[in-house]
Amino acid sequence: MLSDSLRDFSSALERWRLWSLLGWLDIRQRYARSALGPFWITLSMGVMVGSLGLVYGTLFGQPMTGYLPLVGNGFVVWGLISGVLNDSCGAYINNANYIRQSDAGLWTYIFQVLCRQLIMFAHNFVIVLVLLAVFGIDHPASLVWFVPGLAVLMLNLTWMAQVFALSSARYRDVPQLVAAVVQILFYITPLMWRPTMLSRHAWLITFNPFASLVDLVRSPLLGQTPAMASWVVGLCLAIVGWLLALWMYARTSERVAYWV
Predict the structure, then answer these.
(1) First to last CA, the chain
(2) Residue 240 and residue 25: Cα distance in Å, rounded?
(3) How far apart are CA 257 and CA 98, in angstroms?
């Protein structure tokens, strides 16, 4: 059964022109007849980073030279994470007609979500480049860890997207539940605060795998090397998660057309 899941996965990868086109068309359709187009994504994210960074930096008594890059890079990474988790819930529901009438394979619609969110991430990455240009980076060599960290993050987001897509197709309460959990995770993940600020409640980071996933991508952008614990958590989570996703896909993929 797992071999069938892997075969469907590889078959969907070969259709990269289809899901990349679908992802890009989603972005174009969302911002049709707009002067700035997809760069509204960048503008809205930039305004949020600037306003929240100044407010919370003042409240926490943090110097802006270190705090704004922390918040800005964290928000850009979290935008990718939250976007995938929320959008994946509708991956099959929103493509119900295609699923019933075509044999493109269910993984195609997961890749569509990932492609769409990566395009949005690329637009938001302009903020990261601005922060690097304005505030600089202490150890540029640490940037080499950015690509491996992003790869581990995407490995985890891919299996999460499949699990949430299948669960949402079967149980329509899942999208609301995921949205609520993502909102909670936003506050308990070190995005607007440093892990050292929670000396008495370190368990919020220890038992929050998303803190490790954010660290893998954000630390290199801050001139730091991701913690070894973050690599261990990210890779172990990916192994367990992919086994779960492939098992769920093998058991439920044939029923998705009836659920949606």
Answers:
(1) 22
(2) 33
(3) 10
Q: Quote the CA–CA distance of 256 and 260 in Å, as a whole number.
A: 6
CB 205 within 8 A of CB 195: yes
Mention every residue, 6+ apart, whose C-beta is less than 8 A from residue 239.
none
- Any idea where the domains of the chain sit in the sequence? 2-259
pLDDT in tens, 70-114: 888 999 999 999 999 999 999 999 888 888 888 778 999 999 999
Distance, in Å, from the CA atom of 172 to the CA atom of 257, rounded to the nearest integer, reads 15
Alpha-carbon gap, residue 131 to 16, rounded angstroms:
32
**Would you say 45 and 121 are in contact if contact means Cβ atoms under 8 Å apart?**
no
| 75 close to 49: Cβ distance less than 8 angstroms | yes
